[in-house]
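hey m, so remember when u said the tokens were messed up on ur end? i reran from scratch. heres the input so u can diff it against urs
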Amino acid sequence: MNTTSETPLLSSLSLENDLNGLKNVINEAVSSDTALRLFFKDLFRFSASNHCIYAASDENRTHPLIALNSLKNLAALRLDSPSRPIVEKAIEICHHSQASDDSLAKIELKQEELDQPLFTQDFLRAVVEGDAEKARCEAAKIAVVSGNQVAVIEMIMEVATHHMDELGTFVYGVYRSAVFGGEKEPEPFMNLLLTEVTKQPRPIETADLSGDDSLYPFLGDVLKNSDDRDFSLFSTALRLWETDSPRQSGYRKGLKLWAERQFKSKPLTEETGALRKESSANSIIKAIKDNNPSQLTHFLSRARAADDWSWTTELAESWIESFETKESDFLLLDSLQSLIKAVPESFIPLLAVRLLQVNSSISDR
């Protein structure tokens, strides 16, 4: 392993039998919202530096950071009472993930290289052509010169939007982990992405984009007909579409092409209605356990109106404590809550049905 930090979390995770150390880490992580954030930042850096990339059952690339980032999102929805089951599950995933044997030497740049004009297109071209050595050298220059420490990762994300089926979830998970946990030290996240993305050429297509373009016309087909993988990918695409980034236009072009190939488009219609600004996480959990779509739709709408998302944290805890969970379960739940927040109100009934299907699949294992 490449562990370099001396924080208690990283040293404990590097020792398989240090159970007392892990217990202390967990107690500290759930002591406050600030401690919880620091816990996930440490965990992200550790995982980016030490865990390997692997192929999921559908051959798309994945990494523990994907599940860890989803767990962080779910835990962050109830910061007034940090979730011990989510922290324990995050450590379990991190502790049992396969260690990476990749060891990349740090790029040492000469002054004359830094004095040359910086062209980001040189980096993008190297990534598109699969030239790993050139890509790493150009990435090191950008990281030194740019005031945006995740600029390189944002450019890799732009290329990945043209290869969503294979790279979308993986690159986005690492990208968001880097933004959260690696703004000052992005190198482990950058190296992780470049190791995978430059293994082969990644051609990109050209696309026209208008101000009226949107992913919402595809949403009905996604909710009714997509499998879990495409559902999570679409949620990722929707988040990327709205991401505030200098590369936003590039993201949208790749995402538009992917959505047009993957889903059927239908004109968007939206129903509106007044909703009382109140909700109850217990009511949502009960509706899920009762498998009651109409009640769940009602309570999800109320929760959205009240901007109350604590139910997702409680549902994740319920799954962890009651069922055999997989890493992909937390990505699905994170995707569901993200869509419930963002989509027009008329889609809430379809999302309620999808949430019940996911819960049933997990509880029937």
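this time it looks ok to me. Residues 1-6, 270-279 have pLDDT under 50 and may be disordered. if urs says something different then somethings off w ur setup not the seq
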